[in-house]
């Protein structure tokens, strides 16, 4: 029998430390790819109010791909517009300046920012995990972390080179509270003050900004007569900058610039002492800033508030020895006003999870994991560049300077949002060329993004588009045919199926794919056929059996008389009717595009990052 | 202390007997209107397989209005197309004839039939009830029913003239199993062999048809090569008629015509003995009928099957003494192939619930309840007329006769679906003039349904249409602004709000409504304003406060640059820019349409069925 004091000892494929948006997204991605995962958090309970609140269009698409976006779409507030009010000395108050769409990306499936509290959003991911019987181990604190330095052990993907001691803070009396976990991989998702990052000795680059901010969540009384409180609104008042974020259930969040760090006394850690800032004080500043509009609430309608200094920092590395990864705030922090923290964090997890899963399943070499930092670190740096620029606009002094030097528009945050929209919405992200994102086929047409914003582009996410499913004439959005299940999607844009000769053409593609499946196995892929047209006397059963996963996998670019959708996908995607082959990464980004006549190039592409059945591990 | 043998005795506003689709819909409607309800069912457990399976477009809209359609839309199979195959002697097998859209109603919000098993669909309503802590009392059997004949008691809406004895079949030992319930109203939702109907002595009109049918649910093996098994398909084979209904999770239901009643021996109740019909026998017939296509399954993939004779009957009355009502199969039965049983049943409940609630809350006189039978009985009769015509098409003999006499099309069921589409989809239902559905304003333009199928029409449901919510620029479907909450919706189509003068015009409408609210109270209504246009410098706060429920209640006919929607609602609805007033019943049907200049007519309309604060009860 185990004595009470002897620590438990266990093995796990992946241990995730921290159950915020980053950790939960990582765990969900791993779970959906069939990987056993444990996720622990130091907190005894989940948070339920405050914190991050804006989900960007690309993140909604990603949540869609996990099938967990539903409640978000139903219950969040949808921000369609961004308004701007500026101080006008002639009325000694603020005045309406502009109201513009929040989202300008033509390919965004959702043309809004979804706002809700962070606890709710974490709940979406938790529900997804619970479907797979994964539960967060709360009140669990890691106390030691050892990562092997033995090259052989690190290289052997089946080894367990990470050793962590966990302390179960509320272990039942008589049960051991300590546990030693041996993991193949560890993911540090433990927020801005990451213990994992600290243990790995990864430094952060960048610094705190010189300004102090407040944030407060409350419900205004009906007597409040500001007309734009259901839109994101930037208020450039005389002596402060405020950003209003409308939230679920008629709530609002205000971000309030409180002034320079120098204006605050220092606490004993040498940081500005914000302890004298209260909810009342924040509301007072806001009331003054909104003049001549009336802003009223009562103490019981104030849900949450905080004061903070923005740290704009990126970790020098996102990975240690190929076995320990950091995600989310643990590796990058920025100003909450840009609404990026939670979005970037979840997308880190989305990016990392399928890669870990591929290595764990012996599908890919360890080198695949290098692409995580290579893809996410430059993105984090870009976000911070945006963040600095954006935060600037809220500072009364620097704003005045910008207006003087470059005209009013530069200082408005609406246009800033638009300029950086591809980045902040997440829609425009294009991962750089790498083993998983490469234009292997030199003969494929140069991408003409001018032609259509929907053009399929290597490194960009597959845009949403309505197609028709042949077997049941149902409109299917292409994104919905690409679930985040850990598998690569092989899409055959097969041209028309209107005669028996065309069946012959498809037989050639079938042949080519047979070799691929023979070399790499079929279990890593989900095969889709998208026809340009199909005649009434042909059916999905006329697609050669080797190209047909099941009745759901044959789509056609036409929704004819069966629905309101319009067709035109081939043209929008930039695919000629002669067809093309598109490989999509498990996270929904285009991996490569190949001519149907050059299918052997697919082998070149896949060999770059997938193991063949005959390859040594 | 209560002795074990003494029955419990209790009071309730409404007792619903039977928790099928009709009873559950009635209970949900009552609950949402704030009425206390109990619902009992004789079964020990809910059904989980088989039975009805098709939800028509209008029913999805109704489920939407209760906020319970979500899972249906996500998890059901969506039928967009109806295919037809006919026997061709030259190949001694069936041959593809046509494939047409299942739904041709241009205003249908959902252009498909949603299929899933009856247990799942009941689950949607149950979840809605559970939100209000209402649970079905299973294994509960009514054993006696007494309805007072005392006129005074019956007329006094606050009395409890219904006395029912309930037997709790699985009462815990030591607790009384009998209970006497005194109810203000009872609703019999206990299916085709309704005990309630029997106790009330209400006869059915109509008869059983002369034909025996089988139904079977199974998953075909992949080797089955019939290409249309994901569409509703009518198969007119040589010696039988089959209707295929695709279902959730790659399942199918087949309805199979088994022949005339005379071909069966009679059982001891004098009914055709169908005991020799087995799943294998049904599959054998189907296999022959589908030749030259292969249809294969295995016994473990057969989920449910049955054999039955269609009864096409309507109860002579749907109500007894204003206190006992019957809904669903208890008052009308038809052939399942038309897919109407469950839909009509739920819509009975939807129609009845708000009326009962209005009377129970002393908002309306008892006479309101007469409109239930007046509206639903003619509809049931029409359905049966359709049903006879439709079932005919499946009978090999009568089909041959129809083809001979009127050409092939008449015999196809696709066109039949189209001809009766307004009826079967539920979209075209128009309730006849009555106290709740009346064109009180003779000056309102004659309705020109030719102009636009979306024209608002007294007696028809409010069609779906995208508007923009002024406060947050969000596209809102008008139907979503009309939830089934038991309240009437007063819609002011207020014209433009682009200058201060227009505010003055709105003040006049505000004045008129103030009188209405004074007379009838505000708690019975939900007020909506739909502007034809709004300028940037005006906001929802410029709508007079008496017309403004909250920030969600001001909509505008324009979605401008903020989304993909197109505007044009005024034109589609047939509303001039000078505006109009539309009263919508709590169930989403247009009650009346009035000129803004004649708002006193609203008082005429409402007085017809709502009590004024000063009216005697
Ligand atoms: C007070 C506060 C307010 C914020 N406000 C906003 C906002 O308004 N808008 C916005 O966009 N962003 C805001 N952020 C940032 C945003 O919440 C983060 O970008 C986002 O939550 C990052 O997700 P994450 O999972 O990386 O980190 P977190 O959400 O911080 O999650 C980290 C998790 O790790 C756990 N943890 C920490 N240390 C350990 C440990 N040693 N062992 C085990 N578990 C540990 C924590 O309990 C926590 O659950 C705020 C953050 C904080 C802390
Ligand atoms: C075996 C079968 C197969 C069917 N197949 C189809 C089909 O394929 N397609 C289709 O459209 N329709 C079909 N129907 C009809 C369809 O199910 C009905 O139109 C629909 O269910 C009617 O709903 P309802 O609530 O009025 O009645 P039901 O669904 O019959 O519900 C009545 C409820 O009352 C309960 N009940 C009965 N008697 C009592 C009592 N004395 N006390 C308390 N509770 C009682 C029953 O247990 C039941 O739960 C089928 C019906 C049956 C019985």
UniProtKB/TrEMBL annotation, chains A, B:
Cofactors that this protein relies on: FAD
A GO term for molecular function: FAD binding
Keyword Flavoprotein appears in the UniProt entry: yes
Q: Which UniProt keywords apply?
A: FAD, Flavoprotein, Oxidoreductase
* Domain Phenol hydroxylase-like C-terminal dimerisation: residue ranges: 429-612
Pfam families documented for this protein: FAD_binding_3, Phe_hydrox_dim
The FAD-binding domain extends over 13-386
Lineage top rank: taxon: Eukaryota
Q: Which InterPro entries match?
A: FAD-bd (IPR002938), FAD/NAD-bd_sf (IPR036188), Phe_hydrox_C_dim_dom (IPR012941), PHOX_C_sf (IPR038220), RIFMO-like (IPR050641), Thioredoxin-like_sf (IPR036249)
Please give the family membership noted in the entry: Belongs to the PheA/TfdB FAD monooxygenase family.
Q: What is this protein called?
A: FAD-binding domain-containing protein
- Recorded source organism is Phanerochaete carnosa (strain HHB-10118-sp) (White-rot fungus)
């Amino acid at each position: 029998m185990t004595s009470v004091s002897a620590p438990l000892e266990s093995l796990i494929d992946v241990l995730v430390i921290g159950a915020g948006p980053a950790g939960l997204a990582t765990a969900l991605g791993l779970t959906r790819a069939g990987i056993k995962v444990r996720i622990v958090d130091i907190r005894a309970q989940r948070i339920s109010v405050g914190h991050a609140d804006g989900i960007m269009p690309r993140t909604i698409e990603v949540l869609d791909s996990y099938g967990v976006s539903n409640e978000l779409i139903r219950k969040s507030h949808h921000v369609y517009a961004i308004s701007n009010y500026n101080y006008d000395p002639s009325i000694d108050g603020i005045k309406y300046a502009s109201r513009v769409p929040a989202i300008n990306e033509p390919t965004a499936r959702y043309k809004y920012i979804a706002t809700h509290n962070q606890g709710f959003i974490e709940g979406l991911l938790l529900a997804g995990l619970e479907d797979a019987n994964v539960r967060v181990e709360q009140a669990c604190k890691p106390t030691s972390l050892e990562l092997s330095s033995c090259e052989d052990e690190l290289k052997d993907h089946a080894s367990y080179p990470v050793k962590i001691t966990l302390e179960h803070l509320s272990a039942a009396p008589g049960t051991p509270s300590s546990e030693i976990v041996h993991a193949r991989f560890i993911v540090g998702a433990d927020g801005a003050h990451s213990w994992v990052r600290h243990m790995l000795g990864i430094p952060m680059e960048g610094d705190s900004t010189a300004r102090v901010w407040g944030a407060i969540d409350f419900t205004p009384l009906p007597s409040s007569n500001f007309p734009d409180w259901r839109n994101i609104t930037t208020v450039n008042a005389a002596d402060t900058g405020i950003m209003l974020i409308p939230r679920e259930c008629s709530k609002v969040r205000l971000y309030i610039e409180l002034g320079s760090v120098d204006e605050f006394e220092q606490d004993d850690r040498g940081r500005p002492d914000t302890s004298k800032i209260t909810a009342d004080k924040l509301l007072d500043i806001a009331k003054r800033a909104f003049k001549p509009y009336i802003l009223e609430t009562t103490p019981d309608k104030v849900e949450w508030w905080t004061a903070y200094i923005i740290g704009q920092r990126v970790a020098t590395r996102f990975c240690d020895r190929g076995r320990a990864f950091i995600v989310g705030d643990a590796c990058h922090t920025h100003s909450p006003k840009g609404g990026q923290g939670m979005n970037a964090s979840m997308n880190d997890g989305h990016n990392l999870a399928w890669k870990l899963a591929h290595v764990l399943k012996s599908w890919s070499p360890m080198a695949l994991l290098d692409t995580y930092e290579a893809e996410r670190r430059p993105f984090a740096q870009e976000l911070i560049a945006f963040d600095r620029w954006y935060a600037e606009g809220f500072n009364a002094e620097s704003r005045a300077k910008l207006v003087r030097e470059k005209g009013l528009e530069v200082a408005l945050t609406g246009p800033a949002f638009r300029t950086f929209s591809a980045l902040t919405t997440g829609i425009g992200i294009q991962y750089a060329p790498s083993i998983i994102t490469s234009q292997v086929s030199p003969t494929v047409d140069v991408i003409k993004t001018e032609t259509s914003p929907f053009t399929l582009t290597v490194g960009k996410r597959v845009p949403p588009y309505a197609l028709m499913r042949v077997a049941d004439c149902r409109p299917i959005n292409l994104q919905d045919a690409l679930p985040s299940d850990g598998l690569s999607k092989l899409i055959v844009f097969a041209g028309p199926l209107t005669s028996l000769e065309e069946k012959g053409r498809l037989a050639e593609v079938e042949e080519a794919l047979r070799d691929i499946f023979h070399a790499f196995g079929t279990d890593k892929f989900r095969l889709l056929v998208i026809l340009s047209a199909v005649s009434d006397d042909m059916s999905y059963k006329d697609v050669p059996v080797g190209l047909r996963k099941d009745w759901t996998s044959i789509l056609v670019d036409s929704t004819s008389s069966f629905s309101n959708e319009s067709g035109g996908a081939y043209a929008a995607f930039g695919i000629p009717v002669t067809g093309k082959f598109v490989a999509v990464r498990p996270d929904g980004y285009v991996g490569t595009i190949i001519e149907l006549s050059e299918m052997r190039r697919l082998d070149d592409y896949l060999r770059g990052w997938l193991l063949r059945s005959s390859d040594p591990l």
